[in-house]
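tool=predict chain=A
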Amino acid sequence: MKLIKKIILFIIIAILLFFTIIGLQGYNLYNSAIGQISLSEKVYEIQNDENFVSISELPDDLINATIAVEDHRFKNHGAIDIISIGRAIFSNIKAKEAVEGGSTITQQVAKNLYFITENEDISRKVAELILSYHLEKNYSKDEIFELYVNTIYYGNGYYGIKEASNGYLKKEPKELTLDESTMLAGIPNAPSAYAPTVNMDLCKNRQAKVIRSMVKYGYITQEEADGIKLGM
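tool=predict ok
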């Protein structure tokens, strides 16, 4: 019995030590990133870029489509979404592979701002979480969403919604229709697969997923969904 207790205690200590080390590595990565350029300076640069598009210039359909498919509880949670993480873990275990992620829009912004070139390991996730907390603390949901659509990769060399809208559709973001919004909103999940210039069939399949999500979360009716044209 004493031996079992010692083994259990050893395992607990080892787990705590592991997470402490990972936590410190993540914190050091976060400190190193913001030490080169502060969060406020980074955000200022993006907001003053010539291609920056404010949320007031975005059609509601694009906003709703993006939130529906990427992070439908975006306006109701903080830096992380425990429910989404739990659902993702369950789905991945059930499928025996990584089929769903639990990252929030805020976490994706943190990644895009500082950690896009870092290796995808646990310490980077910790750094993203720390930065996500500071994003949620210092910026509104609208500002965070603006940062997302202005930094996310839409494939074909297009970063941000303006480049994507101009490049794929030859129009400004404010001119996007419901059809076009649902197509563009689906691309960032896997640009190398879902970009219309790469594989139109996969692009349409992803767009259909966006549309189903919009119906599921009450952004559009099934009748409206049935009338949406897939693809460009």
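The chain has a mean pLDDT of 86. The two ends are 68 Å apart (CA to CA).
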